Amino acid sequence: MSEPKDYLGHFEEIVLLAVMRLAENAYGAKIRQTVAEATERDVSIGAVYATLDRLERKGYLKSWQGEATPERGGRAKRYFRVEGAGVQALNDTNGARNRLAHGLDFGLDVA
Amino acid sequence: MSEPKDYLGHFEEIVLLAVMRLAENAYGAKIRQTVAEATERDVSIGAVYATLDRLERKGYLKSWQGEATPERGGRAKRYFRVEGAGVQALNDTNGARNRLAHGLDFGLDVA
DNA sequence: TTCCATATACTAGAATGTAGAACATAAGGT
DNA sequence: ACCTTATGTTCTACATTCTAGTATATGGAA
To answer: Residue B56 belongs to what domain range?
Structure first.
């Protein structure tokens, strides 16, 4: 039966989901904003990049430099995309939780 | 509006769910077993207790000593129960995730 | 060429995750 | 009584993740 699965930390999961959701628009600053909205709290940009780097190192996502000449000024963006392994990790993480939460009624916020 | 919410780490969430699920049968060794089954990997007993202690310190759960004379031998159990604040934290943690995951199709393992 | 806005990189300390050995307690056999 | 076995918990230490804060990079506009 397979190697031990690799589970994501809470923030890693959140960031990975944000990248997924933003699709072709996923770059640091925007990701930060998305995460802040979803978590309803201030998230430092450093926190986001540290996590993105770690996720990339693990092969869960990939990044590349955006256009060298942005439209309105400012540094070039670094875009991110979730890789297959990232989706897998997301699934595994969710699986463990689901097996435990299934059938439990604790007043879930059903969005 | 309100103070910044408190989110649970991955393992904290798993352990809290296990305690909830085990109900009146939630004590260290059993919790460990439940968590191991759900995550499909070996979980050291130390990892479980360290997390239980931290969760108790934060007020997410409560513990007390079980019977002084267990049926078959061995040390008395220490039972755990999730408190209201724990349920709240579970909800908040879930909420943030839901807001991001909602509508995203990445092949969820629907158990 | 200075200032401002947008972005990313780096660093450090706190919190969480994780393992393993030590300790505690009781039942049962001999 | 004493030792072995079965349960269960406590303690300690270290690795990884979380998080904030500060520094650096780059281009447009005044």
So the answer is: 10-95
